[in-house]
Each structure stands twice: as C-alpha cells, then as structure tokens.
Amino acid sequence: MTATKPSPETQDLADPAALVARMRAGERRATSRAVTELERLSSAAPRLLEAMRPHLGRALVIGFTGPPGAGKSTLVNAYTRYLREENKQIGIIAVDPSSPISGGAILGDRIRMTATLDDDGVFMRSLASRGHLGGLCPAAVRVIDAFDAAGKDIVLLETVGTGQSEIDVAEVADVRIVVSAPGLGDDIQAMKSGLLEVADILVVNKADREGAERTAQQLKGALSLRSGPRANVPVLKVTATTGDGVPALAVAIDDFATANVAKDATVRRRRRARYLIARAAADLVGERVRHGADGELDRLADAVLAGTLLPADAAGKILRGM
Ligand SMILES: Nc1nc2c(ncn2[C@@H]2O[C@H](COP(=O)(O)OP(=O)(O)OP(=O)(O)O)[C@@H](O)[C@H]2O)c(=O)[nH]1
Ligand SMILES: [Mg+2]
C-alpha cells in the first residue's frame, strides 16, 4: 500500500506556527492559505488564530465607505500606490454586498485596484457579505487578523455604505473615511443622516467633475450643524483617478491616527471583538425568533398587534427566555 502524499493545503496547515512564519516572511501562498481558512472559519482556523496571536495588534485599519460608485475602489487603489511609495505593507479587503454568484463587483474591483497587481507589498481579498444585508461580515475581522499577523502595516477595508455597513465599519475600523462624489443625487441626503455620523474624514471624490465644490460645501454645511468633535471633520476634495489630493488625504489620516487612535492595541482589538460578539448575539436572537418558540412568538405578536406590548419589550421577553 502506498501512503497518499499530503496535499499542499494539508502541509500548510499541519504546522500553523510555520505557516505564520512564512506569512511574515512575505510568502504570498502562506498568507492566501491563512486568509482562506479564516474567511471560511475552517476546522484549522482556531489553531491558526492561536499561532497568530503573538503577532496581532500592529496594523492600522482604515475603513472606506460611501455610496455605490463614489469611487471607493479607485481611491483605495490610489492611496495604496501612495503608501507603497513609503514602503508600507498593505492588505486590502473589499466587501462585496452583491450575491456571491454574480461576482461582477469583485471583477470590477480587481480591474480598478491595479496597484495590487504584481506587487508583493500588497495583498487583496474580496469577500462576499453573504446574508449580512450589505453589512460587514464577521469574516472581514478575521481576515484583518490574518493581514495583521502577516505583518501588514495598514489594512484598507472597502464597504458600500448601505444601512448596516457604516455602523459595522465604525466599530471595526480605526480610521473611518466616508467617500462621496458629485452627482450622486439623493445619496447626499442619505449621507447626511447615517454616513456623516461615522466619518472621521470626508472625501469628495471626482473633484475633476462639475459640482464637486458644491458637494463639499453641502457636506460642510451639514457638519457645521453638529456640535463636539464631529463638527471638525475634515472635508477633502480628491480625484482618485489621477491621485490629485491623495497626499493631503494621507496627511489627514496620519493626523487623525496620531491624535485619536489608541496606541494600545488591546483597546483597538477589543472594539473588534465586541463587534463580533454583538453580531453573533444578533444572529442568535434572529435564529431564535425565526425558528424557535413559534407559539411564543405568535402570542407576543398578537400582544403587539393588540397594543398591549411594544415590539422592543417582546424582544426583551424572548431574550430573557434564551
Ligand atoms: N471622473 C472621475 N471618475 C472617477 C474618479 N474616481 C473613480 N471614478 C470612476 O467612477 C466609477 C466608480 O468607481 P469605483 O472606484 O468602482 O467606485 P466604488 O465606490 O468602489 O463602487 P462600488 O464598489 O461599486 O460601490 C468608475 O468608473 C471610476 O473610474 C475620479 O476621481 N474622477
Ligand atoms: Mg468598489
């Protein structure tokens, strides 16, 4: 009998510490393997995370969110080029809200993120936010850890700003950049409500287009209505396609990080862990409400209909029964 030769995957995973060492030495295949295992939360993931733990906490996570088509991918590409001039090691995570089947946006990102091609200092991974309604997926947090363990200095995280995702980005990223552009119409209205709340820096991209200055003034106007630190959020005009304005954005990011990002890695990583717990809790409650305790749920629904119980109080009852 001949023993079957172990596959490269099995070999990679047999010794997680060796895999992490190879990641840190810049071996792309090793990083790719780790990212895939963590993304899928495979059976190898816990041991891998254990081997990574001593190396976690260095990477700065910068989130880019904003309406579809604002130019987030193009900007991430331009900023990556800038950071590569400074010899920074970069990890990019693009969360694709579309179905995992279409794949269209992922292909588009690859085309726009040309800085990631043929450069060993850049590693990019697209994730589908399956079932998470456009929100960030918990898998993204694990991929951040993989990039961090691989020695990336900066992780750039792109998500489309729809509903849940801006809240998620706010919790996960150390620096939050909201990207808008002229001509997005009603999206500016939407940004005023949700996205503005989470922005550390506002970018008006497509500054080469008519209306960019007006968009910038509108955003400044909306910001001036708030009090406290949110009133001082910088609004920067950028042309991602040419790179105009990217150095000024880089300075603004550095300034923000120096002044506001906790030096203590535990503080930053704790926020991400809290996000993961909250997401898991929300999933559990959702499961329970949808699949468990049908009779109880109907009873509570009738009470809500009768006006004797508020939906939030009904949710509290379900939670206490868990
Ligand atoms: N004129 C101009 N066009 C730009 C600029 N930046 C991006 N674009 C174009 O805008 C379109 C959308 O750019 P993307 O970078 O894919 O935008 P996105 O926000 O990542 O889009 P989604 O990920 O689909 O939400 C592309 O056709 C880009 O070439 C810019 O600075 N000026
Ligand atoms: Mg994009």
Summarize the structure.
By secondary structure, this protein is of the alpha/beta class. Helices cover 53% and strands 13% of the residues.
Annotate the secondary structure layout.
Layout: H1 8-14, H2 16-24, H3 28-40, H4 45-52, E1 60-66, H5 72-85, E2 90-96, H6 104-112, E3 122-128, H7 138-149, E4 154-160, H8 164-172, E5 175-180, H9 187-198, E6 201-204, H10 212-224, E7 235-237, H11 246-260, H12 265-291, H13 294-306, H14 311-320
Parallel strand pairs: 1-4, 1-5, 2-3, 2-4, 5-6, 6-7
Helix pairs in contact: 2-3, 2-4, 3-4, 3-7, 5-11
Strand content: 5-15%
Main sheet overview:
7 strands, parallel
Task: Give the second-level CATH assignment, the architecture of the largest domain.
Answer: 3-Layer(aba) Sandwich
- Global mean pLDDT: 84
Number of domains: 3
Order of helices and strands: HHHHEHEHEHEHEHEHEHHHH
CATH topology grouping of the largest domain: Rossmann fold
The span between the termini is 53 Å
Overall geometry: flat
Q: Bound compounds, please?
A: guanosine-5'-triphosphate, magnesium ion
Low-confidence segments, given as residue ranges, are 99-105
CATH superfamily of the largest domain: P-loop containing nucleotide triphosphate hydrolases
Coarse structural class = alpha/beta
Indicate the percent of residues in helices. 40-55%
Strand order of the largest sheet: 3-2-4-1-5-6-7
User: What is the CATH top level name of the largest domain?
Assistant: Alpha Beta
The number of helical segments is 14
Radius of gyration: 22 Å
